[in-house]
Amino acid sequence: MLCNNILYGKKISFNLVFIIAVIVYFVIPFLVNMTHTDKALIDSIEHKITVSAPFLEAMPGVVIVHNLRTSAVVYMNTAGLRRLGVTLQELIEMGNEYFSRYFNEIEAREYAPEIMAMLARNNDEESVSFFQQVRAHADESWEWYACSTRIFMQDAEGAPLLNISVAIPVDPKHYFQTRLDRMVEEKEYSVKNAHLFAALGNRERQILTLMAKDLTSKQIADELSIAEDTVKTHRRNIKRKLAIKNQYDLLRFAQTFDLV
pLDDT for 163-216, tens place per residue? Predict the structure, then answer.
């Protein structure tokens, strides 16, 4: 019995020594290395922000830099901080709450997938442009911003680390009214000319598409493997049917009915 206890005690002592050895030789160095890595990463981020800040402050509109690993804001220029009525430290402490507090999450579903796809491609020369709604307080109405975002910094392994976004306020009375007027005009043109499009045969639509691309009769003939004289006849008929006076009229008609 005593022998068993001695052996059991030695087994416990051995296991304890083994665990301590693992901690000393593997766990602690790993943690120290991880701490050094994290500190180096933080230092590199801070250096990037410090060097870039004077330029970012001078840019028109609001400039935001996100840490892609934590989804937290690490920089916002003075124009943005004033608009939201917060300090940079307050934004940093918000973490993920920042987005739900200031942005229209429902509307964001349209552009978020494009941003995620851009980050996945990891091309630091690529950018995504979109419109988004922002408000400083829940009792305010949404304001529209024209935005563009891209990768701002990559880590030592080349993975995206920071992204930068520039947001410029849009005057809704000017921008949206102009856009609405254009959409109404395009719709009226489409309705007005729908019967002309319906009257075109398949071959005429093919030739109209190539005409809109500014191909010559010979080039169209080669493309469709038909006689050049046949193309010329179709061109005359198309212009007569659609009352086309110039290349602009032709291109507008082709674009309206998705031929180009």
Answer: 999 999 887 667 666 776 787 788 888 888 999 999 999 999 999 999 999 899
- Two structure tokens written together for 142: 């949404």
What is the model's pTM?
0.56
Tokens of 200: 């075109």
Torsion angle (degrees, nearest 10) of CA 10, 16, 21, 23 = 170
73: alpha, beta or left, given left = phi > 0 and alpha = psi -120 to 50? beta
Beta carbons within 8 Å of 170's beta carbon, 6+ residues apart: 131, 144, 145, 146
Q: Identify the residue whose tokens are 């978020």.
A: 112
